[in-house]
From TrEMBL:
Name this protein carries in UniProt: Alginate O-acetyltransferase complex protein AlgI
Bilayer-crossing regions: 7-23, 35-58, 70-90, 110-132, 144-164, 184-208, 220-239, 318-339, 359-380, 400-423, 444-462
Pfam families named among the record's database cross-references: MBOAT
Main subcellular location: membrane
Natural source organism: Paenibacillus eucommiae
Coiled coil, from the record: none
Length: 474
């Protein structure tokens, strides 16, 4: 069920009405809404989700006992096996067949009947982090199965994040019966919901048309054309994914629940380290806390630190999908993180850290790193490794400096998207001041008309066919 469909808004309105009308039944109301929301994607997948949820919940109650470590490995193992079977088994069998020079996956093979359950990557990571945190006594187990079900399956974040942590969300769930409706929460909810709808319907979906058109035949693109189309894809995937995250935050506010921000205008990053503090924040922090630090982090010397960085980012790439290009995308970002660490060390030795305070240096660094990010997006968007490399060869050739033929309008659009990205950053970092100015100097009738116009524009620009979110496939 997509956030920008009439069916979802019907579910949201009915759930909200029941939620605030029957405070004592709130947990059950949200639990049922979660099941209805996820069940639309397939009732068999819902049964699987409920089964893994139940195993993880009851297994977590045994993590503090004598055999806690055994139960931890059991919980993590079951969840990883579940993810591996649905997401990676076909990829594994195909590559194993190539190694053995055998055709293990045929046209009528059982493996090709496997369908990836929506949101499995996200809820698997939540199960693992919750279990590890309970085992390490960082959090207490959920008070009940239904509390745990709402924590992991709250329909606002279930399908594409943000990835929730037990210490962030469980305390909110446990206090849900005592929540009082607040005007502030409804205002913030409406703001983030409309921001997300605007990004998805008026930006991401229209960018998708051009991106899909040109990337359908990447072999026909010149180097300069490929750069422009890759710029467009960079903004498409950002506005598509951040739109979902913004709407998730807005829906959370409606229920008095606070979800973490998942994006902080990442294309204004000046380096790889900053980028991963701004892009898919809950995933990058998860990778840091449960993989990078788990591998030893920086505690075992510089060479081991760089190896851990590279491996953690490679696994992050593989998390996105069972394709070698996703793995290479992760490796590429791992290499960028290592290079940035080396560059920072060099600047300190040469006493050039003053550069970080220069605005001009900052602008140049942002432009350079945006182009490096776009090189990575080529591997993310084109799933054929040979095709990706060939397109990159053209993009990095001297001919790519020429004006892109027939792409002037798209080049202008890219500049406009970057300007909007900067405005978005200003809006989010000065939201309190802007909100105060808006409510002080614009009377409620004017605000109402502005909201109505924005809603009408979104409805007018909405495409007739449903367009899913890119990260639903992960």
């Amino acid at each position: 069920m997509l956030f920008h469909t009439p069916e979802f808004f019907l579910l949201l309105i009915v759930t909200l009405m029941l939620f605030y009308t029957f405070p004592k039944w709130r947990l059950y109301i949200i639990a049922l809404a979660n099941m209805l929301f996820y069940g639309v994607s397939g009732w068999g997948f819902l049964v699987l989700f409920l089964a893994v949820t139940t195993l993880t919940y009851y297994g977590s109650l045994l993590l503090q006992g004598r055999y806690g470590k055994i139960f931890l490995w059991l919980i993590v193992g079951v969840n990883l096996c579940n993810l591996f079977f649905f997401k990676y088994s076909v990829f594994f069998m195909q590559n194993l067949g190539k190694m053995l020079d055998m055709q293990l996956v045929t046209e009528n093979s059982f493996w090709l009947t496997i369908v990836l359950p929506i949101g499995i990557s996200f809820y698997t990571f939540e199960f693992i982090s919750y279990s590890v945190d309970v085992y390490k006594k960082k959090i207490k187990p959920a008070q009940s199965w239904i509390d745990f079900w709402i924590f992991v399956a709250f329909f606002a974040h279930l399908v594409a994040g943000p990835i929730m942590r037990g210490n962030e969300f469980l305390p909110q769930v446990e206090q849900i019966r005592s929540l009082k409706p607040k005007i502030y929460n409804f205002k913030m909810g409406a703001f983030f919901l409309m921001l997300g709808l605007f990004k998805k319907i008026m930006l991401a979906d229209y960018l998708a048309e051009a991106v899909n058109k040109y990337f359908a035949h990447p072999e026909l693109l010149t180097g300069s054309q490929a750069w422009v189309v890759t710029y467009l894809f960079a903004f498409q995937i950002y506005y598509d994914f951040s739109a979902y995250s913004d709407m998730a935050i807005g829906i959370g506010y409606f229920f008095g629940l606070e979800l973490p921000r998942n994006f902080l205008t990442p294309y204004l990053s000046a380096n790889a380290t900053e980028f991963w503090r701004r892009w898919h924040i809950t995933l990058s922090s998860w990778i840091r806390d449960y993989i990078y630090i788990g591998l030893g982090g920086s505690r075992r010397g510089i060479p081991r630190k760089y190896f851990n960085l590279f491996l953690a980012m490679t696994l992050s790439g593989i998390w996105h999908g069972a394709l070698w290009t996703f793995a290479i995308w992760g490796m590429f970002h791992g290499a960028l993180l290592i290079l940035h660490n080396l560059y920072m060390s060099m600047k300190q030795k040469l006493k050039l850290t003053w550069l970080d305070k220069s605005f001009i240096y900052r602008v140049i660094a942002v432009i350079v790193f945006f182009h490096l990010t776009c090189i990575g997006w080529v591997f993310f968007r084109i799933h054929d490794l040979q095709g990706s490399l060939e397109l990159l060869r053209r993009m990095l050739s001297p001919d790519a400096l020429a004006m892109p033929v027939g792409m002037k309008i798209y080049a202008i659009a890219v500049l406009g998207l970057f300007v909007f990205h900067i405005l978005e950053h200003y809006l989010l970092t000065h939201s309190v001041k802007i909100s105060a100015f808006w409510h002080k100097y614009f009377p409620s009738p004017v605000r109402a008309v502005a909201y109505a116009v924005l809603i009408v524009l979104v409805l007018l620009f909405m495409k007739e066919e449903e367009t899913g979110f890119i990260y639903f496939q992960f």
